[in-house]
Amino acid sequence: MEDPSVKFLSKIFDLLRDGDVFDTSDKCDSEKSMVDFRHPPELKKLIPFSLTDNIETQHDDDEIEKLCRDVIKFSVKTNNRNCHNQLFGGLNFYGLGAEWMTSALNTSQYTYEMAPVFTLIEESVVNMSLQLFGFKNGDGILCPGGSTSNMYGVHLARQTKYPETRLKGNPDGLVIFTSEDAHYSITKGASFMGIGMHNMITVKTNEFGQMDVDDLEMKINDSIKHNLKPFLVNATCGTTVLGAFDDLNKIADVCERYNLWLHVDACLGGSAIFSRKHKHLLNGCERANSISWNPHKTMGVPLQCSLFMVNQKGILHECNSSSATYLFQQDKFYDTSYDTGDKSLSCGRKVDAFKFWIMFKKHGMIGFESMIDNAFEKASYFADQVKSRVGFELVVPIQYTNVCFYYVPEYMRNQESRDETWWKRMSKITAFIKEQMVMNGNLMLGYSPLASKNLGNFFRMVVTCQPHATYESMDFVLNEIEKIAQKFEFHDHF
Fold first, then answer.
1. What does the buried/exposed string (b/e) look like for 227-237 if buried means 16 or more CB atoms within 10 Å of the residue's CB?
2. Distance between CA atoms of 462 and 402, rounded to whole angstroms?
3. Helix residue spans in 346-406 (DSSP H)
4. Residue 284: left (phi > 0), alpha (psi -120 to 50), or beta?
5. DSSP state, 349?
6. Beta-bridge partner residues of 455
7. 139-143 vs 306-310, strand pairing mode
8. Rounded distance between C-alpha atoms, residue 236 and residue 269, angstroms
9. Which one of 175, 229, 235, 375 is separated from 153 by 20 to 30 angstroms, measured CA to CA?
């Protein structure tokens, strides 16, 4: 007799399909297609969130189905073609199938005996990635997110420069260099690893958000004069907001002069490596000591899929091994070099490489290149539309598939002075338009200030590979903002 819970599993697919979770068509333009937003107090009334230890509160399958249906109803449908809120969007459905398989098989990546197929799959994905980025004698590992991948870079850099830290802790005066527009995970890493947030030295960026290499070298010299211990420079390929790419070759020259570890945060922009037209953005990546890359961002590999790569084979084991005897016995009946858990900071580790591997088997290099090129093309089209439409303004020229822009209401367009009051009002208007998008439920864009450039809130449109962007889906975003603007007299509100 079939276990009734297996029937429940097959029902879940129907619930997801009926809830339009897989819909990427232009039907997504209708209101509430992406999210039926409710504020927390209201949502708490609609779904019984609390958990109580009472046998009477156990639910039968019909009640569980109702709960699942409500969870789907009130969740954001990230596969909706108008979901541009984060650096990731929809997901590739072959990757989703692989995700379901990894969850069903419910194994961990730490030993070959528990994950024989997945261990070899991770090896294949890592080797392919090392080759793409030009690491000839490297190693790598799949990590639980880009922040962790970046912390691996800080960890290995510290261990390489000051190997005694593993036993004795941090020496005084360790300092890290990163741009003022870099991801906050570097700040977190400095805190988490006991280096201290005050010992993370921020480097100026130019008008496009790229690291000022002259300022970097000046600050390195200044730190040495003050008897500090510089050991790491973090460069970025695809900053979170502007999508800026630092000049890796120039930064690598500086790192070589001062014997510093170069870590490249390519979590966002690393996917450009698949495109012959755009991979020049990553020129010099082969000179880095380590690289982080998140295929779950632009590529649409299901969350999460994050790679950390290092150009020195064996260093992951050297820095992370604890030789736990209950897992990593050396007298096993197979080649224990395939037990990858001892080079990881975590013990249990999902078999995330499988999702990327299946997608590669389906689409190949040519397919990935086509996806990336389409995202770039549609982002460029969107930027051109922003420049040509009355009331819209680009913040900076685009470098990746991030398009940062303002919508300026008609009554503010001809003001001669864009003073502090004008910019404060623009920030409020941007946030208000975002609120109306979410309440309409058919469009989501992120917005952000940028303190390093003294900029208030502006929209950040992110074009990804999944779902496939079209000219029509790009036009919809601008049309919808105009529609919201026509509905409200902004000067009455702000």
1. ebbbbbbbbbb
2. 5
3. 353-388
4. left
5. -
6. 450
7. antiparallel
8. 8
9. 375
| Residue 34 phi, psi (nearest 5) | -100, -45
Residue at token pair 């504020």? 39
CA distance 182 to 201: 11
CB atoms near residue 442 (< 10 Å): 19
Strand ranges of the sheet holding 200-203, from the earlier edge strand across to the other edge: 139-143, 306-310, 290-293, 261-265, 229-236, 174-179, 200-203
Cα–Cα distance measured from residue 141 to residue 125, given in angstroms and rounded to the nearest whole number: 9
List Cβ neighbours of 210 (8 Å cut-off, separation of 6 or more): 179, 244, 245, 246, 247
Which positions ≥6 away from 106 have C-beta within 8 Å?
Answer: none
The 3-state secondary structure of 99-150, one letter per residue: HHHHHHHCCCCCCCCCCHHHHHHHHHHHHHHHHHHCCCCCEEEEECCHHHHH
**Is residue 346 within 8 Å of 371, Cβ to Cβ?**
no
Amino acid (one-letter) located at 315: I
Q: Please tell me the pTM assigned to this model.
A: 0.94
- Backbone φ and ψ of 402, nearest 5°: -85, 130
Token representation of residue 112:
């070959």
Radius of gyration in angstroms for the set of CA atoms belonging to the chain, rounded to a whole number:
24
Other Cβ atoms closer than 10 A to 424: 13
User: Letter for the amino acid at 429?
Assistant: I
For residue 388, give both structure tokens: 């040509």
Q: Which amino acid would we find at residue 279?
A: K
Q: Are 205 and 452 spatial neighbours (Cβ–Cβ below 8 Å)?
A: yes
Neighbours of 265 (CB within 10 A): 31
The tokens describing 53, both together, are 């230890």
CB atoms inside a 10 Å sphere around CB 168: 9
Q: What is the 3-state secondary structure (H, E, C) of 295-310?
A: CCCCCCCCCCCEEEEE
- Whether the CB-CB separation of 271 and 300 falls below 8 Å is answered with no
pLDDT 10s digits, 394-403: 999 999 999 9
H/E stretch holding 427: helix 420-440
Own/partner pairs, 214-223, CB within 8 angstroms, 24+ separation: 216/177, 216/251, 216/254, 217/254, 217/257, 219/177, 220/177, 220/254, 220/258, 220/260, 223/175
Question: How large is the average pLDDT for residues 169-185?
Answer: 92
Contact 81, 24 (CB under 8 A): yes
